[in-house]
Design brief:
Blueprint (H helix, E strand, L loop, with lengths): L10 H35 L8 H15 L4 H8 L3 H13 L3 E6 L14 E5 L5 E7 L3 E7 L5 E8 L6 H19 L6 E8 L2 E3 L4 E5 L4 E4 L1 H9 L3 E5 H12 L7 E7 L3 E7 L2 E3 L31 H4 L1 H14 L4 H7 L6 H10 L3 H25 L3 E6 H4 L1 H15 L9 E4 L5 H17 L6
Parallel strand pairs: 3-6, 6-10, 11-14, 14-15
Antiparallel strand pairs: 1-2, 3-4, 4-5, 7-8, 8-9, 11-12, 12-13
């Protein structure tokens, strides 16, 4: 039917039709808006760049420059998932405070300059801030001032009597800190803080050394005491955990997903770093592998009160006792001659020297102990599956004698070939591992995580 000759439509019907149409369009518009916003949120969650908080963004920039050495603003934006605007603002702030410096031009990974308009390279200024590291070992304390790369500028080492009261030991350490700072010439205003790596079980939240059997410490408020005494920010943690953090941030553990640092000296302990963060466990007790039971029946009594702990099999005092017994049975042996020598080497160093010189009984004793260590490492691999295991302390000192046997045992006994994919090597920090780790605690807590610039 032709519209011109169709039925007449009332004005009320037309208005009703227009209103219904407008309502539909409004509903469709609101539905589209809701759907569009939802899609935007999903794109932000699944693929689009999301802005980090200023503190975490600053940390990302600082760590990227720490690990890469230098980078342009564009590279930092690409590598940190921060917007160009955020990078520009953060870099301007860091330049203003002297934390970063602009120099030269961007260099690519292959060492070549990029084609096109040159981009200025940004670099962390190592001497912009400093930290103090205090390593409290068993009978020895080490103090160091380090820059932002954890490079030691000044240090002091001193022995102490482990039978002394905790307050005396801490006071002596504080005096040594003051002496080291005077020698370094670093102004207190350029110190970001003090890190303490202490023996035994440490609660980093409260700063209390809850139990250090070798020192006879119980519930010693290390952090608060030292903070009051030095009038500086202080953080404290277990010394082996501190070593692990030092390697993860400044050593061979950079970029490693899961690192385990296993240390042997008077006791045996481990520290774990997962994705650049210390893993402490729910009670800050992760890493006490020295107290895993290796010989449940008839094992030697451990200082913790249990029997058959790993510590009773592979610690330095145990190897020394075993060596002294061997020397007593064979007073003319190479081992006996090395132990009687009056050089300044520690007893454990003389034992290793005798084994290297060809004393068969000494080598056999070390091999037996290294197998126990290898079994413990296999258990660690089965539980945590780390990418890298670093050995420190006595294990690094005698790594040419200990590591081959321990590593072979670990690979043989770990489940389903997991040990084959783990790198095992000694730390190359030597005695510096403890004090660098302590400084790393301060640098990570008060600079790279917090990045207070004023």
């Amino acid at each position: 039917m032709c519209p011109a000759t169709g039925p007449r439509v009332s004005a009320r019907a037309v208005c009703r039709k227009l209103c219904n149409s407008a309502c539909r369009r409004g509903s469709e518009s609101r539905a589209y808006e809701i759907t569009h916003k939802s899609a935007n949120r999903q794109r932000q969650q699944f693929g689009q760049r999301r802005e980090a908080a200023p503190e975490s963004g600053r940390r990302a920039v600082l760590l990227r420059l720490l690990h890469s050495g230098q980078a342009s603003r564009v590279q930092l934006a690409d590598q940190t998932a921060l917007s160009n605007t955020t990078i520009t603002n953060l870099v301007s702030e860091l330049l203003e405070h002297g934390i970063l410096i602009e120099e030269g031009v961007e260099v690519q990974a292959d060492g070549q300059r990029r084609v096109g308009r040159p981009r200025t390279a940004l670099r962390l200024v190592p001497e912009a801030r400093f930290a103090v590291g205090i390593h409290i070992g068993i009978g020895t304390r080490r103090i160091a001032v380090t820059n932002l790369h954890a490079e030691i500028t000044h240090n002091h080492i001193a022995d102490y009597d482990v039978r002394a009261p905790a307050t005396d030991i801490l006071e002596q350490a504080a005096q040594l800190v003051e002496r080291t700072l005077r020698d370094s010439g670093v102004k207190r205003s350029r110190l970001c803080g003090v890190g303490i790596g202490a023996s035994g079980h440490v609660n980093p939240t409260s700063g209390i050394n809850t139990w250090a059997p070798a020192l006879g410490w119980r519930d010693v408020p290390v952090r608060d005491w030292m903070r009051t005494r030095l009038r500086l920010p202080v953080t404290v943690d277990n010394n082996v955990r501190a070593m692990a953090l030092g390697e993860a941030l400044f050593g061979v553990g950079r970029g490693v997903n899961l690192l385990a640092f296993v240390y042997g000296r008077i006791g045996v302990g481990a520290g774990f770093v997962l994705n650049g963060q210390l893993f402490r466990g729910s009670g800050a007790g992760a890493g006490e592998i020295g107290h895993t039971i290796m010989i449940p029946d008839g094992g030697e009594l451990c200082g913790c009160g249990k029997h058959g702990c790993l510590e009773t099999l592979v610690s330095e005092p145990v190897l020394i006792r075993q060596a002294e017994a061997l020397a007593a049975r064979s007073p003319k042996s190479l081992l006996a001659k090395h132990l009687r020598s009056r050089n300044e080497a520690r007893p454990i160093e003389r034992i290793f020297a005798a084994a290297r010189a060809g004393d068969t009984a000494t080598r056999d004793m070390i091999t037996e102990r290294a197998r126990y260590l290898g079994i413990a490492l296999a258990n660690l691999v089965n539980a945590l599956n780390p990418e890298l295991i670093l050995l420190g302390g006595m294990f690094a000192q005698g790594s040419d004698l200990i590591l081959p046997v321990a590593e072979a045992t670990m690979r043989e006994t770990a489940f389903a070939g997991l040990g084959e994919r783990v790198r095992v090597q000694p730390t190359d920090c030597g005695w510096r591992a403890g004090v660098i780790g302590a400084a790393a605690l301060a640098l990570d807590t008060f600079f790279y995580q917090q990045a207070e610039l004023d």
